[in-house]
Design goal:
With 394 residues, this protein is α/β, with parallel strands linked by helices. The protein is built from 14 helices and 15 strands.
Length: 394
């Protein structure tokens, strides 16, 4: 029998990279429910549940809050092609790989992109964004990443939103890695467009991009002079499906089952408790990594709890370490992106995976693998430091 005809049963992995993270067992169970049609009355009720719970997680009352069918990049592209027309100017803060992706998509949408390049590993500075804004006659939007997945940096948003609105520009934010793991107040902070993804802190598989659009964004959509550049992502058509139930495309039914259950889990735990859990395990992980003699990459005070970046020590081979963790311990961690490929490890503690047990297992495994590589490791110190950090935060 050809191998491709055999049942595919991969080994279970502990996904501690930049995403996807392991889905919660209740989410996987929800995905196994019998399929419904995408216009079935029961499924339409589920859509209403998802919209209401997404509003709570985004901390918004926005009427147009929905999951885009696709992964995080689908949410990014949907946001940009609906808000931007050819010739519009957008200021994009770029302090990592995914800020650069925003700029690329905006350019493909026909916009004039003013890329404000900033040092990777540092949060975007308001003065740099202000400089980018001040040099333009009219700016349609300002866009950036809240929690940059390539560097593990969390950029504070309120001052940046204020700057955008002072220039009568929309504020658009990528919350792919931040939603459900750190505080994100769409209404209170004045965010006009925010998009995320299902596979990280929401503890679901990849396949949906939760997105929300405020009143200023809808006014921009309604005043467009040209058609939206994408039929699939056209919000004028999508909102008729989500609001008036008119057919647009076949929704990913099982993924919406999953997202509904993932959102239930978030709200059962409570947002503040969930944020505190991510912060607690991140502090323990960082303490353990530093006790092993490793250097953290992201600027202290602006580290994203759910994604920690580590500088790979001289003489240690990136692929060998990640390969050994996967082969011998069934742990996946991520490598660096762009100019930091081969120079950083990216360790994720997201959603269901953000537990003390996973921190301690990773540190003990990493210690053994590093010692095998010839890196001088103080045996047992990583786990001990993490345990002390956890004990202090009870």
């Amino acid at each position: 029998m050809q191998d491709y005809l055999r049942e595919f049963k991969p080994a279970g992995r502990l996904l501690l990279g930049p995403g996807p993270a392991n889905a919660h067992p209740r989410v996987l169970q929800a995905m196994a429910m019998p399929l419904l049609g995408h216009l079935d009355p029961d499924f339409l009720r589920l859509m209403d549940d998802v919209r209401e719970m997404l509003r709570q997680v985004f901390q918004t009352g926005n009427g147009l809050t929905l999951p885009i069918s696709g992964t995080g990049t689908a949410g990014m592209e949907a946001a940009l092609v609906n808000m931007l027309e050819p010739g519009d100017t957008i200021v994009v803060g770029v302090n990592g790989f995914f800020g650069g992706r925003i700029a690329q998509i905006a350019e493909r949408a026909g916009a004039k992109v003013v890329a404000v390049e900033h040092q990777w590993g540092r949060p975007l500075a308001p003065e740099a964004i202000k400089k980018g804004l001040d040099g333009q006659r009219k700016v349609k939007a300002v866009a950036m990443v809240h929690g940059e997945t390539s560097t593990g940096v969390l950029t504070p948003l309120p001052e940046l939103v204020r700057l955008a609105h002072e220039h009568d520009a929309l504020f658009m934010v990528d919350a792919v890695t931040s939603l459900g793991g750190v505080d994100l107040r769409v209404d209170e902070w004045g965010i006009d467009v925010c998009f995320s993804a299902s596979q990280k802190c929401l503890a679901c598989p990849p396949g949906l991009a939760p997105t929300t659009f405020g009143a200023r964004a809808l006014a921009a959509l309604d005043s467009r002079k040209t058609p939206v550049q994408s039929l699939y992502f056209d919000l004028n058509m999508l909102r008729t499906y989500w609001h008036q139930r008119s057919y647009h495309h076949t929704a990913p039914i099982s993924m919406l089952f999953a997202l509904r259950e993932g959102l239930r889990l978030v709200l059962e735990e409570g947002l503040e408790a969930r944020f505190a859990r991510h912060k607690r395990v991140a502090a323990a992980l960082c303490a353990g990594l530093e006790a092993l003699g490793l250097e953290l990459f992201a600027q202290e005070g602006y580290r994203l709890p759910q994604l920690t970046t580590v500088v790979i020590p001289d003489g240690v081979k990136d692929a060998d370490v990640r390969g050994a963790l996967l082969r011998d311990y069934n742990i996946e961690i991520g490598g660096g992106l762009g100019e930091y490929a081969g120079r950083l490890w990216r360790i994720g503690l997201m959603g269901h995976n953000a537990t003390p047990a996973n921190v301690l297992y990773l540190l003990s495994s990493l210690e053994e693998v590093l010692a095998r590589q010839g890196f001088e490791v103080p045996l047992g110190q990583g786990v001990a430091a993490a345990q002390r950090a956890l004990a202090r935060s009870v």
